[in-house]
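Shipment paperwork, digital attachment
Item: protein structure file
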Amino acid sequence: MGQKAPRQMSLIARPRILITGFGAFPGMPDNPTSDLVRSLPRRLMGLKVHYRVLPVSWEHSAEHLSRAIDLVVPHLVLLCGVSHQESCVHLEMQAWNRLDGRPDAIGELRLPGPIDPTRPMTHARTCHWPIEDLVKGLRAKGHDAKPSKDPGRYLCNHTFYSAFDMPAPAGVGFLHIAPGAFTGRKDPRRRALSDLVRALDLWLRT
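Attachment content:
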């Protein structure tokens, strides 16, 4: 029997998805992604759901993500961060090799520049998920969803860019949600995230 493609293999192995949020950071003392990812059921359609809340730390966020991936061994990784835009959700298409000089949650500063000094700051890593189709599906379900090519230059982009070096056979993606306190099971951002996970499960089956 020939070797199966990663997405086909995931169907045999009871696919797992690791979904992460972030903790508080300057200007966002109550990050809604923390409660959002904790609120998810442990299984959505055929996907077994694992979650982690990452620290907003230049030094430690990617490290915590890497340890979680080593422990969970997920087929997909979906990072969630909070946006300053009011649209419900933005599905990021790229991560950029750039960081800004803002302090993280513990006050550590990084000078503006590249994340990976061996690559130019114009270097981008592209999510290979069918972003346009996923966004179209979310809109069909009534969600205010948009694709985005700008995940910012803060820890969301930094962690997303770093995640491309970590093992996830079906890839890594990033969902930005609108700001505001998490309001529980009926929060529209929770419904959007749940519908996105269901769509990713169907994508894995194709």
